[in-house]
Amino acid sequence: MAGPYCRWHYQGFVAMEREPPTMDSIELFGGCGGLGLGLARAGFRSRAFVEWNADAIATVRLNVAEGVEHVRDWYVSHADVRTLQWGHFHDQLALVSGGPPCQPFGIGGLKRGSDDHRDMWPEAIRAVRETRPTAFLFENVRNLAGPRFRPYLNWIEHRLRHVEASASPAEETPLAQLRRLSSACINYRTTVTVVNAADFGAPQVRYRVLLAGIRADLGAELNPLQRTHSLDALIWDQWVTGDYWRRHGLVMPPDRSIPNRMRHGVSRMRAQMIPPPERSWRTLRDAIDDLGEPDGRNHHGFQGGARTYPGHTGSPLDMPAKALKAGDHGVPGGENMAILDDGSVRYFTLRESARLVGLPDDYRFCRSWTETMRCLGNAVPTELGEAAGRWIRGTLEGSIVSRISARQRAA
Q: Are 299 and 360 in contact (CB under 8 A)?
């Protein structure tokens, strides 16, 4: 990864003429900054942040201008990735990351997959091919790994694994292309995994597919990403020791209040009395309790009109929230509202929603409630981004140490 940066004055980027730091990165489809912020906390330095949505890009630029930690030095571009060329960063990046639009694959859309004009996976592949980073990390909805789209996910993984292979002839079938790619030279060792953001400290249950790769010439492998938090640990904290309730100044509820999904775990753990090795899942109460009632300050304003009906019930306070959805009011399962201690419901404030995404309290928003909630509902929780970033960084640093040790032994 040696060599000076080229200067790039396109779409607001200026790549500095100097030797790059070890962990430079670029991000495509950056949204309002959730994944990027997590990666920055893991030690990656963003040299280019690209997003086409005007509301998301306005939010990121506001926080760059406000000097928010880890964000203030980002080179931000409001651009369509299809118009950009990436050769300026060839062999100079530790990581290419991003979350291609999920609408072609989400359970709530038309599910047209690669036939949807919003499918940007070919652009993600092109960015890797043109930059040849040390590693890449892309994320998307869990449905991409389901039966309907798994063949397309296999194609994406093969294209990234053999990213320097020639493009397929127009008449070649997908199956024939996979067979041809399987015999081509491997450029990246890849892995696909489905994760729950709650298992990495996010206070919402949000399942995502992670597709990661590391350059094959490093001789390194990405070991499985290990969770840091668990439901078992929350059960232990709430229903075995009771520490959770004391921490929040509450009396431990009677056993009849144990949620059905926890009952078997409670019985098992009370019998074994062995604490889980992970930390407890973070609950909605953990995330928002200190904010108090909405008072209108710092994006913590009340939004009226919340109500429940079958299938639209909101998030209990003492579990991780349901996954935020990219809407404001009326999302299908009541994902964007809380069930309070008295049984009433209300919509999350913008600050509460930002807490669920892992954005700091000095992160500001400059668009309407509707557009901001859409950005937050699309955001990758920063806790997941940081965990994935540390996973990849640890692998890269381990590879560097191994190569240095090998050279020393040879000498």
A: no
Give the pLDDT confidence of 272-294 residue by residue, as tens digits.
999 999 999 999 999 999 999 99
pLDDT, one tens digit per residue, over 16-61 is: 333 334 699 999 999 999 999 999 999 999 999 999 999 999 999 9
Distance in angstroms (rounded) separating the CA atoms of residues 400 and 219:
10
| Beta strand spans in 216-362 (E) | 229-230, 279-280, 315-316, 337-339, 345-347
Question: What value, to the nearest 5°, has the Cα angle with vertex 270 and ends 267 and 273?
Answer: 140
Strand, coil or helix: 206: coil
**389, 233 Cβ separation under 8 angstroms:** no
Among 48, 58, 51, smallest CA distance to 24 is for: 48
Residue-by-residue DSSP string for 285-317:
HHHHGGG-S--SSTT---------BTTB--EET
What does the pLDDT average to over 211-240? 96
From residue 274, alpha-carbon distances to 199, 235, 252, 263, 269 in Å are 19, 12, 20, 17, 7
Q: Residue 6 in contact with residue 68, Cβ under 8 Å?
A: no
Q: If DSSP codes are grouped into helix, strand and coil, which group holds residue 237?
A: helix
Q: How confident is the model at residue 331 (pLDDT cuts 50, 70, 90)?
A: low
- Alpha-carbon span 42 to 45, nearest angstrom: 9
Whole-number Å distance between alpha carbons of 200 and 236: 17
Alpha helices for 81-169 (secondary structure H): 121-131, 150-161
10 CA to centre of own chain: 27
Give pLDDT, residue 5: 35
Residues sharing a CB contact under 8 Å with residue 197, sequence separation 6 or more, in sequence order: 204, 205, 206, 207, 208, 380, 381, 383, 384
Structural domains of the chain sorted by starting position, each given as residue range(s) with its CATH number in brackets: 10-225 (3.40.50.150), 229-277 (no CATH)
